[in-house]
Amino acid sequence: QVQLVESGGGLVQAGGSLRLSCVASGFTFSRAAMTWYRQAAGKERELVATISSLTRTTTYADSVKGRFAISRDNAKNTVYLQMDSLKPEDTAMYYCRNPGFDYWGQGTQVTVSS
Description:
Distance between the termini: 40 Å
Radius of gyration: 13 Å
Strand content: over 45%
Order of helices and strands: EEEEEEEEEE
Shape: globular
């Protein structure tokens, strides 16, 4: 079955960086577009970044454009989210997702202190 395991979150000061990882299984990772979402306390889940399967085309939410970078390693079935110049408003639980499945992993918490 589909499994997504996120890691790499933590507590960081504003202006700092974190790199999130998501290891996928249960589907053909190399053929799947992948996404990162986040959900802050009391807010709706927000699409942060996407990466396509073949061309690795990326898209970003305006709020993270120029600061976050999504990438993938098909040999490791892993998608990454490099987060630089972090702001307190980036504080949220971060989730990766294959848009083809109605499945969410446990997420990884990112907390940015001011």
